[in-house]
Amino acid sequence: MNRLNDYEPVIGMEIHAELHTRSKMFCSCAVTDTTVAEPNTTICPVCTGLPGAMPVINREAVEQAIMVGLALNCRINAFTTFARKNYFYPDLPKGYQISQYDFPIAAEGWVDVVDENGAAHHIRVRRAHLEEDTAKLFHVYEPAAADYTLIDFNRCGVPLLEIVSEPDMHSVAAVHAYATKIREILRYLGVNSGDMEKGVLRFEANVSVRPRGSDTLGTRTEIKNLNSFRALTLATAYEIERQIAIIEAGGEVVQETLGWDALRNVTFSQRSKEQAHDYRYFPEPDLPPLSIARPWVDEVAAALPELPDAKHARFVADYGLTPQDARILVGERAVADYFERAVRAYNGTPSAVSKWLIGELFYLMNRERVAIEAVRVRPEALARLIGLVDAGTLNQNSAKAVLGEMFATGGLPEAIVEAKGLAQISDNDQLSAIVARVVADNAEQVAAYLAGKDSVFQWLMGQVMRATRGRAAPDVARQLLTAALNVRR
Ligand code: ADP
Ligand code: MG
Ligand code: ZN
Fold this sequence. Notes:
Elements: E1 7-18, H1 59-71, E2 75-76, E3 79-80, E4 83-86, E5 96-99, E6 106-114, E7 120-132, E8 136-140, E9 148-152, E10 159-165, H2 172-189, E11 201-211, E12 221-226, H3 229-248, E13 256-261, E14 266-272, E15 282-283, E16 290-291, H4 294-303, H5 308-319, H6 323-330, H7 333-345, H8 350-368, H9 379-390, H10 396-409, H11 413-420, H12 428-441, H13 443-450, H14 456-467, H15 474-486
Parallel strand pairs: 12-13
Antiparallel strand pairs: 1-10, 1-11, 2-6, 3-16, 4-5, 4-15, 6-7, 7-10, 8-9, 11-12, 13-14
Helix pairs in contact: 2-3, 5-6, 7-9, 9-10, 12-14, 12-15, 14-15
The chain binds adenosine-5'-diphosphate, magnesium ion and zinc ion.
């Protein structure tokens, strides 16, 4: 019995993204990389929650929230307010978080995604609202002494944008595609690095299941603090199966908040799910309502960069790329920019550039763990290298070797070809002499070939390549070798 097919998973996501502003959400402390900055160095009475300290709204954070809202096809609300969300936790010194409740900055948007199986999904975005991040706790377990916890307030008050989807995802693949798309958009807008190891982007998945064909929602659980795509997809898949097993056994899913144990690959109960009224939301008395005038929104809209979907369509239409290649290139804005600069410097079809970039350069980047920003091969230099192949100066293999050298040293292709003597040999006389020597030196193999063992031809070609240290123009060498063998028939 395939019980998984009798149920439809229903998933809604909450994504928390720290914003890349200069100062914090409600004070003038700098936003620092909390994984490297000395703890508790960018703090003040406001972000450490001292009584009487007054918050001030960060304009840059609001602007970035508007950018994201627009990119997610949301309505930007002209009237927004901040609210106090009351709860106690040691990382929240005020005893409440300033967030938004009734009147978020952005609402009712959507994104379209295509998952890894090629299936399209339309996912509605319920809202995107601004809030502040909490401090960071470090639990220290001392084998021989009492355990203790350290607290770093540098992160406390960092602007956080919470993006809440409708429960529109029905597979793990859709969840992965949606999370990937949101990350991609945030990175395009330059408002978040997408650096999940640093915790600047965190996922929560709300999961329920229902009998296929039903249109009522089942009871959901909420999996908190998923800090990687791996955790997101594994936890979601696990939770779908767990809930189906409960229902199949005649039980009922309990609405609760879950954690993800990444060592044992299971979800575990953290607490029963709190309801909105548990937080006693009320309007933040220290902040006035914020009105966002239409001209401001228009200004932000006009300054938005080209977004991934638009770029994808343009790459396919203007450069004749396959949708798959275009997808790979637009995944990161810096890669797309690199590609376009190389195309501009190159006199040939853009797909040749995409082939070298996706094939060889990505291979080197992966192998050496170098990001596109740090690659020493300038786009113009890559274009010139491909030009050398087109002109017959380099064969494919030599060109790959030259690219490896360019990658390691930042050198220019022409200089490397010169210094290493890698220029292709396509001169007939020179190659004829080499072919003649290979034929003479390998009488046994030549006899085997002439007796009908065709595969020996490739071996003989290999000898020609070896004799020229890989520099023979393959087409010319093949012709000459064929001719030299045929006269012996
Ligand atoms: P809360 O803010 O208390 O976590 P919300 O009702 O605002 O709850 O929903 C939070 C997220 O949970 C949203 O992304 C929403 O789409 C999702 N969600 C709500 N109900 C369900 C459900 N039955 N199954 C799956 N996801 C759900
Ligand atoms: Mg929630
Ligand atoms: Zn501060």
